[in-house]
Amino acid sequence: MDLQTAKRIAMAMEDEAAALVPPENVGDQTQLKTAHLLGCADDQLKWSGRTTVTLLGDVDAEAMIDVIAAAWEQKDGVVVERRSTRQGAPRVDMTGTQGDFYSASIWAPGTELKITSFSPCFQLEEGQHPSDAF
Questions:
Q1: Which residues, at least 6 apart from 5, have a Cβ–Cβ distance to it below 8 Å?
Q2: Structural domains in the chain?
């Protein structure tokens, strides 16, 4: 797998989770387009990203995380775990089949949904340097 494929997979999973928020509850949505790479197994790397959805109106944080968890549980071969943030807010994590990892949690006392991603592992192509932002 190459960097661009891994990045596309991670960003698509972020988009998919963000799309589960009812449109009337979305004030703003921002997605990181570039990030630095992190280490992965077997001297490979992974791309890390994040999408933040600013929430509007009366949002049931627990129910929103439950909807995302239920969608992720429909994927083959993944491991989904419901948790809480250190602040006690609802969170769900998903480990994918290619070493990828995703997390969705409610932040800023119920006003933000943060979806983080760590792409599948990949090898850099010739001429790419791991300290560059991609």
A1: 122
A2: 3-118 (3.30.160)
